[in-house]
């Protein structure tokens, strides 16, 4: 979702792999009302065997200990990271499982994820949510707003309808209609590409933002858009769910780390999250969770707190 910045040139962005989804284009952006083919439960990870680590549990702020839950905010339209089960109400995905795993290491009763539109998550940290685990790319701008703990490395990829019927060319996207998720770095990148088109005397790109990535696929399949741009894990996962109706076009590009967001003034919780995430990495739990969704290649081995970003 949220690849840091994609400073590739117009010619950098080409390639092909399969992606997909199936959302009703007439549904609202509320995930509760937008179940899709990608919302079927195809994977999950049982965190019940993950032990509490006492020295990490000791770091948890008292209000969270008393509550007994680690509250996560996620934009649940971004399979396989965070999306809704077939009931349209239950968040699932690897970020949802990671939150549950962190809670187990911290000695809490549960890790609870609730849907929130992507741009609203960070402002709600420290009040409505304890953490934001929602495919946040780590950027220097975000590190000025919140603490970030790295756990994944994810790139961006283009997705088109099978066979590329619109003849979308990633090396020359000028004049195209491209769908992206609101608030993501891909949205910013598409706008940058459009500006470059205009500066070169070509037709601008029509950028179509959606609150949920799951709302994009049916419109792409139906021919309303030329292409979509999303995280490589999203494209890869949805390719297996589309029955061949959507393909990735071009290679993954501009990989960048993603992180758990914690309120800037909560150094105690940030340290606990960093140590708990490192425990999950060192003991193979993070890799196992991601493997349940076919995303194990994205796992990092070091959970860095506010890593330096070029």
Can you walk through the features of this model?
By secondary structure, the protein is an alpha/beta fold. 27% of the residues lie in helices and 25% in strands. The protein has 10 helices and 12 strands. It has helices at residues 54-57, 62-67, 94-105, 118-121, 140-145, 185-199, 217-221, 232-241, 267-282, 285-291; strands at residues 15-17, 69-74, 77-78, 82-84, 91-92, 110-115, 131-137, 146-161, 177-181, 206-210, 227-231, 246-263. Strands 1, 2, 6, 7, 8, 9, 10, 11 and 12 form a 9-stranded mixed sheet that branches.
Helix content: 25-40%
* Global Rg: 19 Å
> What is the 3D shape?
globular
Averaged pLDDT, please?
85
Largest sheet: 9 strands, mixed
Distance between the termini: 19 Å
Order of helices and strands: EHHEEEEHEHEHEEHEHEHEHH
Structural class: alpha/beta
Hey, roughly how much beta strand do the residues contain? 25-35%
Features:
3-stranded antiparallel β-sheet; globular; 9-stranded mixed β-sheet; 12 strands; alpha/beta; 310 residues
């Amino acid at each position: 979702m949220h690849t840091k910045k994609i400073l590739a040139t117009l010619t950098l962005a080409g390639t092909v792999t399969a992606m997909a989804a199936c959302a009703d284009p007439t549904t609202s952006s509320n995930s509760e009302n937008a179940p899709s083919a990608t919302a079927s439960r195809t994977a999950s990870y049982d965190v019940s065997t993950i032990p509490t680590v006492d020295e990490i549990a000791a770091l948890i702020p008292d209000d969270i200990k008393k509550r007994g839950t680690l509250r996560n905010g996620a934009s649940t339209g971004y399979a396989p990271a965070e999306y809704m089960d077939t009931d349209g109400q239950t968040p699932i995905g690897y970020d949802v499982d990671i939150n549950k795993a962190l809670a187990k290491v911290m000695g809490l009763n549960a890790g609870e994820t609730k849907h929130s539109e992507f741009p609203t998550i960070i402002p709600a940290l420290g009040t409505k949510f304890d953490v934001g685990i929602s495919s946040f790319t780590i950027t220097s701008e975000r590190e000025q707003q919140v603490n970030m703990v790295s756990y994944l490395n994810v790139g961006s990829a283009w997705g088109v309808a099978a066979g590329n019927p619109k003849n979308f060319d990633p090396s020359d996207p000028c004049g195209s209609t491209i769908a992206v998720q609101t608030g993501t770095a891909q949205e910013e990148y598409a706008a940058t590409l459009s500006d470059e088109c205009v500066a070169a005397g070509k037709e601008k790109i029509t950028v179509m933002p959606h609150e949920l990535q799951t709302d994009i696929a049916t419109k792409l399949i139906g021919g309303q858009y030329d292409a979509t741009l999303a995280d490589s894990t999203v494209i890869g996962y949805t390719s297996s769910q589309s029955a061949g109706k959507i393909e990735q076009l071009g290679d993954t590009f501009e990989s960048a780390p993603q992180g758990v967001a914690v309120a800037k003034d909560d150094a105690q919780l940030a340290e606990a999250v960093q140590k708990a995430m490192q425990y999950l990495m060192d003991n193979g739990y993070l890799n196992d969770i991601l493997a349940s969704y076919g995303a194990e290649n994205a796992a990092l081995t070091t959970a860095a707190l506010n890593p330096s970003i070029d």
